[in-house]
């Protein structure tokens, strides 16, 4: 918005404080001050309208963005489970049995935090979503179930077993996997 007046600016021009080159303090020259004075800027109403528009856009965009991020994390956790099942199948081919772990045994994401047996069994597996999901295993010599559960507020639990049966609970961001 630009507001112009033909009346001279009073402040610096009437005080007569000039700088070299005929400029007043603030960078305006005398001819500019004697002619038309313009004030550039936005009114308070215009700024408030912009703020309201930005707030409305943010309120619409944020839930979509949050859903997109959760969906991405859930799909990455699902990929972690698939990679882990491939490791389990590889072990089964070598030993003709799956490694045995008690029900819902947590698997630390960092290899150094794992027991010696876990390090040996799962050396080829490191989850990409370790910051957002906890990984657990239940296995016998003939079967296994792998689980990824979101940390904090449990918004998603994924399971995969030796028959490649995939299930999810509380995952509103996924329609299938």
Please tell me how large the radius of gyration is: 33 Å
Tell me about the biggest sheet? 5 strands, antiparallel
Provide the low-confidence segments as ranges: none
Relative strand content: 15-25%
- Going across the major beta sheet, what is the strand order? 5-6-7-8-9
Query: What is the string of helix and strand elements?
Result: EHEEHEHEHEEEE
Terminal-residue CA separation: 54 Å
Enumerate how many helices there are, as a single number: 4
Query: How many DSSP-defined strands?
Result: 9
Helix content: 25-40%
Secondary structure class reads: alpha+beta
Mean pLDDT: 84
**Shape, per Cα inertia axes:** elongated
List the helices and strands and how they pair.
Elements: E1 2-5, H1 11-15, E2 18-19, E3 23-24, H2 30-34, E4 37-40, H3 44-95, E5 101-106, H4 116-121, E6 133-139, E7 144-150, E8 157-161, E9 166-169
Antiparallel strand pairs: 1-4, 2-3, 5-6, 6-7, 7-8, 8-9
């Amino acid at each position: 918005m630009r507001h112009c007046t033909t009346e001279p600016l009073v402040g610096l021009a009437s005080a007569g404080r000039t700088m070299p080159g005929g400029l007043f303090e603030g960078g305006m020259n005398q001819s500019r001050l004697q002619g038309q004075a313009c004030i550039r800027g936005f009114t308070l109403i215009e700024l408030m309208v912009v703020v309201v528009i930005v707030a409305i856009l943010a309120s619409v965009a944020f839930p979509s963005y949050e859903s997109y991020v959760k969906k991405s994390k859930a799909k990455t956790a699902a990929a972690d489970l698939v990679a882990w099942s491939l490791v389990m199948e590889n072990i089964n081919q070598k030993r003709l049995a799956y490694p045995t772990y008690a029900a819902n045994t947590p698997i630390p994401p960092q290899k150094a935090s794992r027991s010696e047996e876990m390090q040996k069994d799962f050396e080829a597996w490191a989850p990409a979503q370790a910051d957002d999901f906890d990984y657990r295993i239940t296995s016998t010599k003939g079967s296994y179930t792998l689980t990824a559960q979101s940390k904090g507020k449990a918004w998603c639990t994924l399971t995969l077993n030796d028959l490649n049966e995939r299930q999810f609970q509380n995952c509103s961001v996924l329609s299938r996997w």
